[in-house]
Structures are given as structure tokens and as C-alpha cells.
Design goal:
This protein has twelve helices and eleven strands. The chain is α/β, with parallel strands linked by helices and 396 residues long. Strand 5 and strand 6 form a beta hairpin. The radius of gyration is 19 Å and the shape is globular. The model is unreliable at 111-138 (pLDDT under 50).
Amino acid sequence: MSHFEKDAIISGLGISRVGRRTGIPGLELTLEAARAAIDDAGLTTSDIDGIASLGDIPLAEVTTALGIDVPDRSGFDTGGLLTPVMSACHAVAEKRARHVLVYRTVLMLGGTMTESPSSSGPNPLANPPSEPHTPGTRRKLKPFEDIDELLAAHAYSAANWLAMHCRRHMELYGTTKEQLGWLAVNSRRNAALNPRAAYRGPMTMDDYLAARPVSTPFGLFDCDVPVDGSIAVVVSHADYAADCPNGAVAVEAIGGSYGSGGWFHRDDFPKMASVDAAAQMWSRTDLTASDVDVAELYDGFTFLTIAWLEALGFCADGEGGPFVEGATRIALDGALPLNTYGGQLSAGRMHGYWLLHEACLQLRGQAGERQLARRPEVAVAAAGGGPIAGCMLLTC
């Protein structure tokens, strides 16, 4: 098995202004994040020889604005929200590029998941790790192949679809609404220490329970917060680590899954692709869940975080609710600090890229007021829900 990711590092981090309905053009936000990441890596635009993105602001617009001409380009690649980062790891490991810029830009008023054009011909960065066999799957489906069935049942959004997963988990294991609430309360508590977070005001359990319903059992505070903003990282070959002015974050292992039974065709429902992505990641390292010091886990909806905690082995199936209850174990001073920047529930929805950015900041000891007192050495960043999942194990 080729562990190509071990030849890759994250050398630079960048984040733009973030806010709700800012009116700032997406390209402007992208360039803010991209230039910050390149500068953070101690590089110039002329050093960038690869670029990748999770389908948003077109690559051609970004390369033109930055004044760079890169031979390796990648648009929206299947395999999980973090796949462009994984593809960049593959590119630098094979020395098809040395420094790859990866960005994700979101806008509240449109353009949050559109495919961006790639260069003609074969896509040199579209090489995520091969998917593992999924024994718990009735049949292989593309992630959105069963959408027509959901729409026919009047389930029109991801809130509906993942509410079904959550309700089944509640029926099987006794997971409670209050346990979901502790994730929202914890995220808001952490967001108070993040000057870029969309919502920083205090939240109590009573506030959470009183929020308007969205799709049972989800209420407003179970759902992530749309924002305008951009995150960028630079993925470099590991031989650049000694030259990184702000410290290199090593990529220890990656895992991804795309499909895995669609939204509800798994025999092990309510499990999701996160199970398969996590299994693949752990198969590529000697580290285990007990080695992880900080977890940045996708929280497009509160239940997704519980699903990731169980999938990654931080607790057994059905024990995600008790694991987060009281929000002491997952607090900044807890055994497993979780979503230390405020997560998508309070900081803002960046489709997994802010959590990757935060994992790297924590490992570099640069997270400001929310920096963990005991600087972490191993972090996990995991993104996605339903039939789409990707995760990365990072070390410093």
C-alpha cells in the first residue's frame, strides 16, 4: 500500500474576512485567503506550481488574478470534501508539483457548490486514495443517486435526510435531544474566543431547546451557519518542512469514501460514509484514536459530529451521545477538545476547510485565545456527511 500522504505537509494557512451577507465578491475573498496562505508558507506566487479547489471560484480566474501559470489544476473531485487537499498531497508526493494552493470559498447568496472548470485533458490532481470495500452496503450508489426517492417522500433538504439518520440513532441507542444540544453549546463557547466566528454570544441549553424546529429532531441551532468567506492552504513536499517559517504540519494518514450506499441504502443505516473513510485512514497509520489530542469534526448538523466520533473510534457505536453529554470531555480543557474554533454551528459553514485550518493552527500553537494549554501533537480533521466523507490525521 502506497502511503503517499507521508511525503506531504501543509506549509501555509490563509483565511479571508468572514461574515454574513458581506457583499464582498467571491474572487476578492479567495485572493485574500490565497495570498495569506502563500505568504504564511514563506513562498511567493511564482513558487506555486499546482492549484486545486472544491468547486467554487473558477481556477482560471484565481490563477489569472494571482499572476501564476500552473500546469497542474483540479476542480471538484469526487471522494469527499477534503479530496482536493488529498489530491494535492498525491501530486507533491509524486513530484508533479512542489507547492499546491488549495482553496474553498463560500458565498451565502449563491455559488457554494458549483463545479469549477479544470484544464483540458487528464486531471493530474484527481488521485484520491482508492476506496475500501464496504461490507455493510447493499449496493453501490453514487452519492445523489437516491435523491429522487427522498424527494418523492417530501424530504427536500439535507436537514431532512440527516434528521432520519439521527432519529434512527435515537431509536437504536437512546440518544437524546439534550445530548445534541451539548455540541451546540460547546461550539458557541469556543466561538466566543474566535474573533472571526459568525456567532459569539453565549448560548445555554435552554436557548438551544427553545430554538425553532427545522426538521425533527433538528432545531435551528443543530444546523450550521451560512457565511461568506474563504480558506486556503498550501500543500508542499515534505522536504520543504525545514524551510517553513511558521512550522510544517505533517500529513500522517488520509481516508475518503464517496457513495457507500447512497443516503439511506446501507444495511448498517444510520451509519454513513464516515465509517469507511475512518477505517481507511486508520489502516494507513500505526497511530490510534487514543493518540489524538484534538478533534475538528464536521458539524453541518449536530448529529454528524456524533457520527464522526463513533466512526473514528473515540467511542463505541451508540455512545456518541453520552460521550458529549455535559460538554466537559469535549471542552478546551477536556480529554478530547472538539471543534475548538466554534465549528460550523457557530463560526460558519466552510464545508470542512475551517476545521482543517483550525487543526493546523492548534498543532502550530497559533490559535490565540482558544489555543489548548497543552499544545497538541496529533489532530484529526474530518468532513462530510451521508454518502460523502473524508478525514485526515495530522501531526507536528
